[in-house]
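Quick question: what would this complex look like in 3D?
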Amino acid sequence: MSLFFQVILDGLWAGLLYGLIAAGLSLIWGVMDVLNFAHGDFLMVGMYVSFFLGFLFKADPLVSWVASGIFLFLFGMLTYKLVISRILGKAMAPLLATFGLSMMVKNLVLNRFSPNFRILESTILEGRSFMVGDVIVPLPQFVTSLFALAVLGLLYWMLTRTRFGWAVQATALDGEAARLMGVNTEKIFLLVFGIGGACVGIAGGLLPSYLATHPDVGTLFSLIAFMIVAMGGFGSVPGALVAAVMVGLIESLAGFYIGPVYKYIAVFGIYLVVILIRPKGLFGW
Amino acid sequence: MRKIAAVILALALIASAGAQDKVIKIGTLFPMTGPVATAGQRCQAAVETIVDIINGVYPDLDLPIAKKAGLLDGYRIELVKADHQGKPDVAKSEAERLYGQEGVFAVIGSYNSSASKPASAVAERLQKIFMCGASSSAALTERDLKYFFRLAPTDRIEAIEFVHWFDELNKSKKAGIKTVGVIYENTEFGKHAADEAKAHAQKAGYKVVADVPFTVGATNLNSEIQKLKAANPDALFGAVLGADYSLMVRTMKQFKWKPKIAINFCSGYQDQKINEQLGKDGWGFMGSAGYTPEFGSRFMKGVAPVEAYFMKKVGVPFDSNSIQEAVAMYVLALAIEKAGTLDTEKVAEVLRTATFDSPLSMGGKVKFESPGGQNIMARSVISQLQDGAYKTVFPYEYKDAAPIYPIPKW
């Protein structure tokens, strides 16, 4: 029985991390109808920021996430200002532009920092775990999960309880009407892109506690994040959380009880089923 | 005045055309980007090191190709680089481009067995030479190809040696190894290595209790390691490359599980940078090694001066994989010299029949089986990471440290 709980908890940790990564993607899509293809590369950049702060200044990821978050907030806003704002609303252009951005960022990092895998040694969380009965709870994943819940909670609170959040929702529902009501939609877009970046930046800041940093690290994460956003419903933060936890649990249960090789088959299979039954996703707007 | 200028121009053109003719184009096809790009870039640098030596004059090196500039009567080697990103389909199309559009004489590559397979099939169809350094899938040399030559020992040779090593430990140390597990990336290389490991372990009477494939570049290896922990094999075979290797070791630590002995095919284990960064967590793991700097300094005296040039490029010494790519270029150069011509058929014939002296190879010789192309002189040893250094533990005639067995618990 403890093994079952172990598998469930492993899935939960993985799921909450996916949720944190997917949140920003979901927000940007929900408000602006822009699918940010460079999302995985944003994650990778966040990991590099955290890695180099750790490597050069001995800063622990538990501290560096702040810097990664701020860096990606600015990076997100810059992306909006320099790329997205110029082509927003022009059919596929933003999507194709973020695809180009993704390739550019990845290859720039590859060129500047080489493809070497970079691992932070002796971080505070690395290798630590605690036991609940017979179940092992790895500390890095546990802490990352707490961050995921906090960030997602904050995001949800901000969207539903603050004037800024209402403005964001109004912009998402009808940009034209929001503008007529005096909402500065341009500023909303800018901040939303920044906040989306910050969410994934925080995830990237924490990950070097247990994951190697390299230019390709964001690839599979971003694929899973896209799936979660589609499954949870584009733009829905609770949807992203539920879908992410579902994905984590399916992955873990299928990986252990059917066989590791089946875990992504199960995950993407169930995604397909959900999309066929509910094309707007579980909590789609 | 104009006439003189025209004559000079014509002469210059003729001279440059002559110089251009004296070039042998060789293609390199490695994963320069993607999850195993580090290894690919080192392989590329290894080939470049040998090419520098061929094209220049290096009297301090005790290699026949170092004494004069170029091959034959002054042919320079020019490399045409290609990147297959670790993807078989890209490897195939890039091989077609190299042989077709670029007109290369031969291709050296491709690190990943899954990439070497389609790329060398292109070479065979075009009847062009394909030199394969590090790819270790035994299936590659079981296709009876005539233009394919592979330097590295195969997974099969290594699997047999690993199982032999378990037998030896059981006999001499009463190690009590009875059950084995395998963890491997779900690719041509991983699957094949795992199949060899399972087959030879079973043949020797060991029970396979866990069979765990995983997706390359996985976001986590939790269920994989849980599966291993639940089955708790005495010995673990690993075919895990690059970043996945560090994730595997760290996940094992998180779940507080280690087998008594963990032994790796050509993998992240051999990457010194990864092991430096893993620190003490990586100690105690074992793996096959076609080369380690420690081993080289004792048994392969010819490597050190070449390695010095290699280190200028990448900052790390040769590893088991990169050195095989250097040998691939080296042996190809020897074959061209020996054939005395750039006729592909004649050079290939030399490769099929001659025995080459190679100070860069363990055992010092290279000889290819024909057809098939396996280097039947390929050797490898088993090393263990002890206190941050790769120590040779088996076979005993090469050993420089006693094995630490079982691996200390976390």
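Answer marked as accepted. Chain A has one domain: 2-277.
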